[in-house]
Amino acid sequence: MTATNLLDTQEAAVIDVGSNSVRLVVYRIDGRAMTPIFNEKVMAGLGRDLSRTGKLSPVGADVAIRALRRFATLLEARKIQSTFAVGTAAVREAADGRDFAERVAAEAGLSLRILSGADEARLSALGVMAGAPDAVGVVGDLGGASLELIEIGPKGVGRGETFALGPLAFSSPFDDERVSATAAKLLAESRFLSERGGDFYAVGGAWRALGRIDIGQRRHPLGVLHHYEMPRVEALRLIDVVRKLTKKSLERLEDAAAKRADTLPYAAVVLEQVLLAGRFDRVVLSAFGLREGVLIERMSAEALSADPLIAAAEALAGRWSNARAFGRMLEGWIAPMFAAQPPAFSKRRDAVLRGAAARLADVGGPLHPDQRAEIMFDMILRAPLAAISHAERAFLAASIHHRYTKGAPNSSEAYARLLSEEQQSGAAALGAALRLGADLSGRSETLLSAFTVNLEDGMLSLRVKKKVAHLVTETAQRRLDYAAAALGLRAEFKVV
Question: pTM of the full predicted structure?
Answer without folding.
Answer: 0.89
